[in-house]
């Protein structure tokens, strides 16, 4: 009775085109993301939290289809939690990354998910692993993802140096994200940051008017 | 082996045969002179706001079928549990059945565990189900409720994505409603202020969107209970009928009357006692 159901008509399908980034430093990692979710040209959520905790010291940055990445993150959280209880110790970041890769690769045809897994563990310290669309897994000292990442490869390549401190990393990530948000229409809102180390997770939000300013008016 | 004259009981769960039929029809019609009927987005404006004492949900009451208003007083705010209600936009049948299923599951859970369900549990159940069906269930839902952890408002999309936000609008009138909400929302509002805000948001959706209209329903959920005000505000554009369209008995005059009694013969009489104990 109430409107014809047509499988071809577009449904509300929020996507994180986004900009996400993760940097490792000696003692931990700094991760950051913008906060925009779009459905077509409409911003469905301007304060999204794309930094999702997977375990106590392991986070993932999500880009791609909102539904797909939320579902994968839930599955991996369960698998990692179970594994950690069996092991009776904190899981490795590499394990979490491999769990993401397993889901993303097996269902690569059905999923649209680009994920950066970052965290700290006792064996290897701070680590960043990237699992882009398609299900590849590679460890990198610094990684950017999402549609806005293309605008900041230059900034990242010229400003990243190995053995930076935590504050330098925070400034690098917030600077890079604000540049990407400036240029990429699909990224925007606030910058969410998290610094993960042995002592814990330190989360921050940088509001729009507090973002670092760049010279072009 | 199923005989053609034996009705098969359909398999339980959703049946997507009509989806493939529609796709085939589209293919046939595109080639010829006739065009397939254009699908219309279901018109709705639904909104929700978290305030100091609880959650306020609002919805319009128009259900459209193409360009005709099919139902002027449709209920879009569905009961989930004593502490949770859900507004639905999208395909009406899908929102109705999904919320019914959720409500049944939560009732069973309450009976089994002796606890009131939490909003996050309802959201997880919805997310699991909608993700599993990969967008084939066209239900965009706003779920609001109060539980022991606080006042919560979530949106669940047809593909299974969730967002947790303090204020929200969905449906075809969402842009108009969100304009009002973005302008006047403040955290920790008083209940009356929140009700007015939601009413104004739905009203702007009704004014600016053809698919939304008629009355406004409001549902206020607090720790003390639920106040489902239906309608909160009636449409000021209700028309009076010009004439009476019912015919009085005797409008058609009877010219002749012939009564023919049927002669029935009792062939067999069996009495079966019903056990009413």
UniProtKB/TrEMBL annotation, chain A:
<keyword id="KW-0865">Zymogen</keyword>
<dbReference type="InterPro" id="IPR001353">
    <property type="entry name" value="Proteasome_sua/b"/>
</dbReference>
<keyword id="KW-0645">Protease</keyword>
<dbReference type="GO" id="GO:0051603">
    <property type="term" value="P:proteolysis involved in protein catabolic process"/>
</dbReference>
<comment type="subunit">
    <text>The 26S proteasome consists of a 20S proteasome core and two 19S regulatory subunits. The 20S proteasome core is composed of 28 subunits that are arranged in four stacked rings, resulting in a barrel-shaped structure. The two end rings are each formed by seven alpha subunits, and the two central rings are each formed by seven beta subunits. The catalytic chamber with the active sites is on the inside of the barrel. Component of the immunoproteasome, where it displaces the equivalent housekeeping subunit PSMB6.</text>
</comment>
<keyword id="KW-0391">Immunity</keyword>
<comment type="function">
    <text>Component of the proteasome, a multicatalytic proteinase complex which is characterized by its ability to cleave peptides with Arg, Phe, Tyr, Leu, and Glu adjacent to the leaving group at neutral or slightly basic pH. The proteasome has an ATP-dependent proteolytic activity.</text>
</comment>
<comment type="subunit">
    <text>Component of the proteasome complex.</text>
</comment>
<feature type="active site" description="Nucleophile">
    <location>
        <position position="18"/>
    </location>
</feature>
<comment type="function">
    <text>The proteasome is a multicatalytic proteinase complex which is characterized by its ability to cleave peptides with Arg, Phe, Tyr, Leu, and Glu adjacent to the leaving group at neutral or slightly basic pH. The proteasome has an ATP-dependent proteolytic activity. This subunit is involved in antigen processing to generate class I binding peptides.</text>
</comment>
<dbReference type="Pfam" id="PF00227">
    <property type="entry name" value="Proteasome"/>
</dbReference>
<protein>
    <recommendedName>
        <fullName>Proteasome subunit beta</fullName>
    </recommendedName>
</protein>
<keyword id="KW-0378">Hydrolase</keyword>
<keyword id="KW-0647">Proteasome</keyword>
<comment type="similarity">
    <text>Belongs to the peptidase T1B family.</text>
</comment>
<dbReference type="InterPro" id="IPR023333">
    <property type="entry name" value="Proteasome_suB-type"/>
</dbReference>
<dbReference type="InterPro" id="IPR029055">
    <property type="entry name" value="Ntn_hydrolases_N"/>
</dbReference>
<dbReference type="GO" id="GO:0004298">
    <property type="term" value="F:threonine-type endopeptidase activity"/>
</dbReference>
<dbReference type="GO" id="GO:0005737">
    <property type="term" value="C:cytoplasm"/>
</dbReference>
<keyword id="KW-0963">Cytoplasm</keyword>
<dbReference type="InterPro" id="IPR000243">
    <property type="entry name" value="Pept_T1A_subB"/>
</dbReference>
<dbReference type="GO" id="GO:0005634">
    <property type="term" value="C:nucleus"/>
</dbReference>
From TrEMBL, chain B:
<dbReference type="GO" id="GO:0005634">
    <property type="term" value="C:nucleus"/>
</dbReference>
<comment type="function">
    <text>Component of the proteasome, a multicatalytic proteinase complex which is characterized by its ability to cleave peptides with Arg, Phe, Tyr, Leu, and Glu adjacent to the leaving group at neutral or slightly basic pH. The proteasome has an ATP-dependent proteolytic activity.</text>
</comment>
<dbReference type="InterPro" id="IPR024689">
    <property type="entry name" value="Proteasome_bsu_C"/>
</dbReference>
<dbReference type="GO" id="GO:0005839">
    <property type="term" value="C:proteasome core complex"/>
</dbReference>
<dbReference type="GO" id="GO:0051603">
    <property type="term" value="P:proteolysis involved in protein catabolic process"/>
</dbReference>
<comment type="function">
    <text>The proteasome is a multicatalytic proteinase complex which is characterized by its ability to cleave peptides with Arg, Phe, Tyr, Leu, and Glu adjacent to the leaving group at neutral or slightly basic pH. The proteasome has an ATP-dependent proteolytic activity. This subunit is involved in antigen processing to generate class I binding peptides.</text>
</comment>
<dbReference type="InterPro" id="IPR016050">
    <property type="entry name" value="Proteasome_bsu_CS"/>
</dbReference>
<dbReference type="Pfam" id="PF00227">
    <property type="entry name" value="Proteasome"/>
</dbReference>
<dbReference type="InterPro" id="IPR029055">
    <property type="entry name" value="Ntn_hydrolases_N"/>
</dbReference>
<dbReference type="GO" id="GO:0004298">
    <property type="term" value="F:threonine-type endopeptidase activity"/>
</dbReference>
<keyword id="KW-0888">Threonine protease</keyword>
<comment type="similarity">
    <text>Belongs to the peptidase T1B family.</text>
</comment>
<keyword id="KW-0539">Nucleus</keyword>
<keyword id="KW-0645">Protease</keyword>
<keyword id="KW-0647">Proteasome</keyword>
<dbReference type="InterPro" id="IPR001353">
    <property type="entry name" value="Proteasome_sua/b"/>
</dbReference>
<feature type="active site" description="Nucleophile">
    <location>
        <position position="44"/>
    </location>
</feature>
<dbReference type="InterPro" id="IPR000243">
    <property type="entry name" value="Pept_T1A_subB"/>
</dbReference>
<dbReference type="Pfam" id="PF12465">
    <property type="entry name" value="Pr_beta_C"/>
</dbReference>
<comment type="subunit">
    <text>Component of the proteasome complex.</text>
</comment>
<dbReference type="GO" id="GO:0005737">
    <property type="term" value="C:cytoplasm"/>
</dbReference>
<keyword id="KW-0378">Hydrolase</keyword>
